[in-house]
Hints:
It comes from Cupriavidus laharis. This protein is an alpha/beta fold. Helix content is 37%, strand content 19%. The protein contains 15 helices and 11 strands. The chain has a 9-stranded mixed beta sheet with strand order 3-2-4-7-1-8-11-10-9, with helices on both faces. Strands 5-6 form a two-stranded antiparallel sheet. 59% of the residues are buried.
Amino acid sequence: MKMNAYVAGVGMTTFGKHADKTLKALAAGAIRAALDDAGLDAADVQAAWMGNAAAGVVTGQEMIRGEVVLRGMGIGAIPVVNVENACASSSTALQQAAAMVTAGYYDIVLACGYEKLFHEDKSRSLGAFLSAVDVEDPEGALNVVKRMARAAGLPYEDAGPSAARSVFMDIYAMMARGHMKAYGTTAEDFARVVEKNAFHGSLNPRAQFRERLTVEQVLQSRAIVDPLTLPMCSPIGDGAAAVVLVSPRKAREMGLRHRVRIAASVLATGWDGSDEEHDSVGGLAARRAYAAAGVGPDDLSCVELHDASAPSEILAYEYLGLCAPGEGAALLAGGHTRLGGRIPVNVSGGLLRKGHPIGATGCAQIVELTEQLRGQSGARQVAGARLALAHNGGGAIGTDAAATVATILERE
């Protein structure tokens, strides 16, 4: 969908374990930072879209999650829309908020993503992921993995996910094995993704993990499920991110400097049946976003994509059009997706190193890219950044993500 909404302010917390902060406090911190960045007051916000995925499972807060956060900040009497769409929750919130600004309904709106995943009972954290599949499927989450195995012509004899790991690690492992079989990709290639993102994350003061890792260290780390080792899997985390969007009229009135515009944002869902042209929901969302913005992948300055596992990043290179199918590992090995390369990817550290508080991830990508386009990213700044893509997926049905959002931002 073509958009015309401007980013007036962004804010986010550090990602990681915030045992001393409530979910409400995390969200409020990010929102206040975004409002301060925009030079606006809470009373200026005309509507809010609040993205959260797992509070119902982890903290027990259901139904009025956004209202609870905003009322605690003294914000009321406005429309508040609670958005839950798995890991794509806050990117969906942003897409919907931008659409309403583009349509002319509001001049100043808020999109926020927030999550607390750490809990003393680890089964609650993992339970949040188990619910992001079709729970009425006779075999539940395990059937997703089996279907992927059949589609790739691979055996699947693992006992399945346990209390030690999320079901999505099994899904990502099967994706990896399918790519390895089809294109000769190796575990070393996946480890190279982690090494790159660890380097990027070391430059990001808000990242959950900031230590650098070598390819050898990644390969020698604890095995999770073949071929994934622990650093190849995104961690659980707590955190929040917020974005204030304004209309073109309001942007002119405010005299916004460093004008960053949401040029396109597309929400797409998976489907049943085969379609050779649209073979993945991520590819479909990206192609629609490129078309709406009138750009192509070769025009991009940088990308923040959904690297919930190391193999996910290599696969995404291909369906986002950064390279041809099967060439993702070579794109990485050539240094093209590293800071200073042709198309830097996940300069924030990505989900693997910045962290993945699932409801906060989509808005956090927008925060990172906005700062890149403003030239405010310090040691990890992409030189001359003018056009950026955010890609955020969520859930799993069949052999693909349940939902994906692709958003294109441009500096004017």
